[in-house]
């Protein structure tokens, strides 16, 4: 069983920790345990509850009404939500629940069903990428077992590779992009997603992959002269210094345009080197790639 903090629940559900505490006082659906130092922690079941409650509350159900629902009634109400965005969020929640319960058959079934009905690109943009954005929080805080992470990411990686291999773009932009992850970053799913998006739009991709020293990035960039470089940071090691990476890449390649997306770009407050551009959301990533 995983032990989730109230901050984990906030990040995964979108419900502020202050609100969760109020709900605990007024309603009966959450019963956290406490550590010896009186810090709340929550079980897998409680994570599932808060995800379901947050979804129903977002789409019109009052908390007092939800509190009176049985588990089965709650699931029925969630399945009855008709808004497209609500359905996508429900499926992302299912993936999170399957992952924490180590139900890899469930993960694969959810993805395969969505691919069958919506196609690989919509599965990537509507389900996989939002899932990665939310679950990346747990990778950053080390609040899931590495085995869970490896199992689910390998399934998603297979789907992405199949999607990339199936691309047959009708137009070529004449642009070339070098994709890489810096040393300390091993989570390449976000970068594979960017690879997919670029290739579908007729961009030639040079894919270096994960954990690449800057000297190697510089070598390939000098050799191939891409139009720009791109890195997507999902969850780096604790000893990764984002500022040092930015400064180091700027010093080695001051004239190279470098795009960075991912979780770290949303919290970085210091000055960004002039040759760097941050894409902080999925919408910004999609808009940028569409403009190439």
Structure description:
With 292 residues, this protein is an alpha/beta fold. It folds into 3 domains: 1-80, Multidrug-efflux Transporter Regulator, Chain: A, Domain 2, CATH 1.10.1660; 82-166, Methyltransferase, Methionine Synthase (B12-binding Domains), Chain A, domain 1; 169-291, Rossmann fold, CATH 3.40.50.280. It is built from 13 helices and 7 strands. It has helices spanning 6-13, 17-26, 44-58, 63-67, 71-80, 84-100, 104-118, 120-141, 146-165, 189-200, 214-224, 242-252, 282-291, and strands at 33-34, 40-41, 176-182, 204-212, 228-233, 258-262, 276-279. Strands 4-3-5-6-7 form a 5-stranded parallel beta sheet, sandwiched between helices. It has a two-stranded antiparallel sheet with strand order 1-2. Helix 8 (120-141) packs antiparallel against helix 10 and helix 9 runs parallel beside helix 10. The radius of gyration is 21 Å and the shape is globular.
Low-pLDDT segments? none
% residues in beta strands:
5-15%
Kindly provide the name of the CATH class of the largest domain: Alpha Beta
* CATH fold assignment of the largest domain: Rossmann fold
Protein structure class: alpha/beta
Number of domains: 3
Strand order of the largest sheet: 4-3-5-6-7
How many DSSP-defined strands? 7
Largest sheet: 5 strands, parallel
So, CATH architecture of the largest domain? 3-Layer(aba) Sandwich
Helical coverage, percent range: 55-70%
Helix count? 13
Please report the distance between the alpha carbons of the first and last residues: 45 Å
The sequence of SSEs as H and E is HHEEHHHHHHHEHEHEHEEH
């Amino acid at each position: 069983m995983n032990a989730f903090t109230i901050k984990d629940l906030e990040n995964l559900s979108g419900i502020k920790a202050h609100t969760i505490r109020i709900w605990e006082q007024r309603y009966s659906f959450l019963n956290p345990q406490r550590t010896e130092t009186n810090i709340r922690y929550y079980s897998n079941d409680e994570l599932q509850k808060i995800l379901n409650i947050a979804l129903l509350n977002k789409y019109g159900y009052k908390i007092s009404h939800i509190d009176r629902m049985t588990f089965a009634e709650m699931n029925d109400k969630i399945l009855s939500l008709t808004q497209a965005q609500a359905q996508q969020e429900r499926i992302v929640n299912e993936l999170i629940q399957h992952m924490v319960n180590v139900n890899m058959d469930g993960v694969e079934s959810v993805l395969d069903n969505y691919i069958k009905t919506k196609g690989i690109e919509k599965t990537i943009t509507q389900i996989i990428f939002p899932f990665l954005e939310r679950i990346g929080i747990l990778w950053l805080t080390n609040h899931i077992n590495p085995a869970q992470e490896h199992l689910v990411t390998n399934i998603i990686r297979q789907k992405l590779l199949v999607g990339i291999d199936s691309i047959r773009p009708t137009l070529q932009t004449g642009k070339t992009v070098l994709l890489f992850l810096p040393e300390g970053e091993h989570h390449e799913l976000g970068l594979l997603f960017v690879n997919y998006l670029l290739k579908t739009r007729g961009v030639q991709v040079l894919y270096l992959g994960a954990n690449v020293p800057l000297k190697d990035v510089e070598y390939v960039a000098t050799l191939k002269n891409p139009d720009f470089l791109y890195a997507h940071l999902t969850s780096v090691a604790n000893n990764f210094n984002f500022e040092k990476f930015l400064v180091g890449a700027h010093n080695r390649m001051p004239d190279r345009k470098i795009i960075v997306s991912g979780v770290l770009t949303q919290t970085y407050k210091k000055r960004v080197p002039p040759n760097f551009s941050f894409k902080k959301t999925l919408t910004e990533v999609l808009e940028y790639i569409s403009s190439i």
